[in-house]
Amino acid sequence: MKFVGLDPGITTGFSLGILDENMFYVAYDQEKFSHRELWDFLTEIEPDAVVCESFEYRNDRHRDNLELYSLELIGVVKLFCEPYMQNAAKGKGFYNDAKIKKMGLYIPGRDHGRDAMRHLLQWVTFGPGYQYMKKQEIILAQFESVLDKGDRDGIGR
Q1: What is the reported pTM?
Q2: For residue 75, what are the β-bridge partners?
Q3: Which residues contact 113 (CB under 8 A, 6 or more apart)?
Q4: Which residues, at least 6 apart from 64, have a Cβ–Cβ distance to it below 8 Å?
Q5: Parallel, antiparallel, or unpaired: how do β-strands 2-7 and 137-140 relate?
Q6: What CATH superfamily is the domain 2-152?
Q7: Domain locations in the chain as residue ranges
Q8: Which residue of 43, 57, 117, 154 lies most exposed, with the fewest beta carbons within 10 A?
Q9: How far apart are CA 55 and CA 4, in angstroms?
C-alpha cells in the first residue's frame, strides 16, 4: 500500500510511505508545487490514502503576511481524493525532532518534508492508518528507491 503525507504551503512538504508485510518505507522532501504539479504528483503516485495538514485561520491579530496558498493546494488534494485531514498540533505532536532523530529519520534542511512525514507517521501510528500496520519496522529511504520498492513488489506506481 502507498500513503502520502502533505504539509501544503508555498513550500509543500510531502512524504511517501510504502507498506509491505515486513517494513514501512518512508521518504520525504519538499517542493514549490504549482497546482498542476501537485495534481500530477498525486496522479503519478496513485496513493491508497492521503494525509494532509489542515489550514487554521487565527484571527487573533492583524497579519500582513497572511498566506492562503496552502488553502488552494488543499483544494487540489480534495479534488483528487477524500484526504484524512489533521491539524498541525495533532500531526506534529508525538513525533518531535528528538524522536525522529532517535528513529534515524531526521534529514536536516527539509523541515516541511519532515512535517509531512510526521503527519503520515501520526496517521499510521494513532489514526485510521493504524489498521494497516502490524509490527512493521519504519525505515527511511531515498524517495526514488521508495518508488522503486513499490514497483518491485507489484504495488504499482
Answers
A1: 0.85
A2: none
A3: 7, 13, 14, 15, 28, 29, 30, 107
A4: none
A5: unpaired
A6: Ribonuclease H-like superfamily/Ribonuclease H (3.30.420.10)
A7: 2-152
A8: 154
A9: 17
